[in-house]
Amino acid sequence: MSKDAILTAIRRGLRRGPLPADQQAMLGGRLATHPRHLIPARSRVARPEQVALFIRNVEKEFGTVRRVADAAEMPAAIGEYLAAQNLPQRIAMAPHPELQGLDWDSRPMLQVEARRGDPQDSVSLQHGFAGIAETGTLMLPSSPHRPTTLNLLPDTEMVFLRASRIVGAYEEAWDLLRAENQDARTGGFMPRNVMFVTGPSRSADIEQTLELGAHGPRRLHILLLDDDPAALPAP
């Protein structure tokens, strides 16, 4: 059923015709401007504090973060994390150009496969779209370069995230997504799926006992590239 048919059926049920022009203009303006509601003050801080807040909130929710000064260090940081966790040096990696451009030859023991996730995968490497400081949350929109299966199937998920992509509030993350998803025909589009990930999967449904990995990865490790000089900690 088309959108017009659905709306016509709703109007018929409400016994109401099309909205008057002034109400249509008001609603159109509201949709176009994305008005802000109450935003927590804790995210309205200087950039170094914003990144520090993001890290604290990730760790509070049982995730881990490693800050990396240069992209060239990423393969080594990944290999060291896997070794420390006694995990296989084999990764299902998002086929994102930024991840594929890393110097994987510098870490020959790592086996990296750029593809979607598979139920047999132990470890994945996802490309993070944005981080949200107020809750330590990752925004992971689906795309051919960011398969959603990598967020759900492996037991351990690693996420590459640039510090420059950390924002204070959810509204700012949505602003980024709208700004970077444009097409000439419609003026903008949303991905098929947008996941918000705050720490590893967990549940306390059974006897109020916290169980990690209940519905997805039991480990979440963020590799944070310090690419924003304004966000670096004070010396």
From TrEMBL:
Ranges where the LUD domain occurs: 53-225
Name the UniProt record assigns to this protein: L-lactate dehydrogenase complex protein LldG
UniProt-listed SUPFAM superfamilies: NagB/RpiA/CoA transferase-like
Span of the signal peptide: none
Matching Pfam families: LUD_dom (PF02589)
Species the sequence originates in: Roseococcus suduntuyensis
